[in-house]
From TrEMBL:
Oligomer status and interactors: Homohexamer; trimer of dimers.
Name recorded for this polypeptide: Predicted acetyltransferase
Gene3D superfamilies: 3.40.630.30, SCP2 sterol-binding domain
Keyword Ligase included in the entry's annotation: no
Swiss-Prot/TrEMBL GO biological process terms: aminoglycoside antibiotic catabolic process
Stretches assigned to the N-acetyltransferase domain: 1-152
Residues given in the record as acetyl-CoA binding sites: 82-84, 90-95, 118-119
Positions of the catalytic residues: 123, 406
Transferase listed as a keyword: yes
Lineage per the UniProt record: Bacteria, Bacillati, Actinomycetota, Actinomycetes, Pseudonocardiales
Length: 406
């Protein structure tokens, strides 16, 4: 078997092979409509070929930026389109492709890769760990009254903004600009490169699927938030995503969609687990949570670079014993944090925590407390207080959340 990089001439073969691995057929592009694979970067994709030249597996990668705690934006490879034909599964094809891909990412000097896992059991063995979570929130219209705590007005209270209703086709630039400002401040968020918007590659609101967009404008008329939605199912308004820089804008957009006439319920498809809307409802039980799931999975390709890249909010010192069985590596690092910056160097000191690289990935963005993984048996703490210190160190200023589908 050969693992080889692809070129632009391989696009049709790559797309057909990946769809065959899923048991599906590629959709037929129509004029003016985008398909997800139009944004593939063919110089970053791989094909697994048999000795007689037949393609049996695919693996791709996008060039994204990931926002880390501290509003630090770094490059990250977005792994995508991983599949093996049913005829060649459980023969080592996937393992060989993933090892080849990780080696290539390191050669490109990438220190982080991310993916959305189709199955939770597959990618942990390759060193990936779930790092952000998302859920669906459904609110019946007749129980959607908001009862916000009364805030004291001050001289610093911002002037109220406004909400404008537009069609998806009327606001390309607004969506792109507002999302880009949002993702730079939101830990766990990925960039949406301009070519994705231009090619309309992805899910709504990137795709050309018909949508209404509630655009929030600040007191100066500048767009600073939006909610993309449709009324597809009978009497159900579904919000694809809400982009807001702060709680005031988020609340204004929620109030707008919850006040829509002729629907019986509003479904917010993609909200973080600590979203404030349930607490803003007069009837707390009105907000029904479902589809609580992992979303972005992270892989650390260079532990010292990854740990020194993010922002930190507590001073401290930990010795981490990190096992990476898939790549056959086992290293011990001294992590020292002072004044928001970290130093991470090899050490022979006794470890405070022993953990798999996939568990380090899960705590990396601050969305999972190390002590949770200690209690779950994933991380071993070697001294009293080590888990608590790790919690304080890895905790971020905001919970990580990722909306982007790829």
């Amino acid at each position: 078997m050969e693992i080889r990089p692809t070129t632009d001439q391989d696009l049709a073969v790559f797309v057909d092979t990946f769809h065959a691995a899923l048991g599906r057929f590629p959709e037929t592009p129509t004029e003016g409509a985008g398909v997800w694979w139009s944004a593939l970067e063919m110089d970053r994709n791989l094909l697994a070929m048999t000795t007689d030249g037949r393609p049996v597996g695919t693996a791709g990668a996008y060039s994204f930026e990931l926002t880390l705690p501290g509003e630090i934006v770094v490059p990250a490879a977005g792994v995508t389109a991983v599949g093996v034909l049913p005829s060649h599964r459980r023969q080592g094809v996937l393992k060989t492709m993933m090892r080849h891909q990780l080696s290539e990412l390191r050669a490109r000097r990438d220190f982080l890769s991310v993916l959305l896992a189709s199955e939770a059991l597959i990618y942990r063995r390759f060193g990936y760990g779930p790092a952000t979570h998302t859920q669906r929130l459904t609110v019946p219209r007749h129980r959607a009254t908001l009862a916000l705590p009364r805030a004291r007005a001050t001289a610093d209270t911002p002037a109220p903004g406004s909400v404008e209703l537009l069609r998806r086709t009327e606001c390309d630039e607004i969506l792109e600009e507002v999302y880009d400002r949002y993702r730079r401040a939101q830990p766990g968020a990925l960039s949406r490169p301009h070519r994705w918007w231009a090619l309309r590659a992805g899910q709504p609101p990137i795709s050309p699927a018909p949508r209404y967009v509630a655009v929030h404008r600040d007191a100066d008329g500048v767009p600073d938030g939006y909610a993309s939605y449709s009324v597809d199912e009978p009497d159900t308004l579904t919000v694809d995503e809400t982009i807001a820089p702060d709680e005031a804008v988020s609340t204004a957009l929620a109030r707008f969609v919850l006040g829509h006439d002729l629907v019986s319920q509003v479904v917010f498809k993609h909200v973080p687990p600590d979203h404030s809307l349930r607490w803003q409802l007069a009837d707390f039980r009105a907000g029904r949570v479902s589809d609580d799931t992992d979303w972005l999975w992270v892989r650390l390709l260079d532990v010292p670079r990854a740990l020194t890249a993010r922002g930190w909010f507590t001073d401290g010192e930990l010795v981490l014993d990190v096992d990476d069985p898939f790549l056959g590596e086992h290293d011990r690092y001294l992590l020292t944090v002072r004044d928001g910056e970290a130093d991470c160097v090899p050490t022979d000191r006794e470890p405070d925590l022993s953990l798999d690289v996939s568990d380090l990935a899960s705590v990396y963005l601050g969305g999972t407390a190390p002590s949770t993984l200690v209690r779950a048996g994933h991380i071993q703490a070697h001294r009293q207080g080590a888990a608590g210190l790790a919690d304080a160190l890895f905790h971020g200023e905001r919970s990580p959340h990722c909306l982007h589908w790829f």
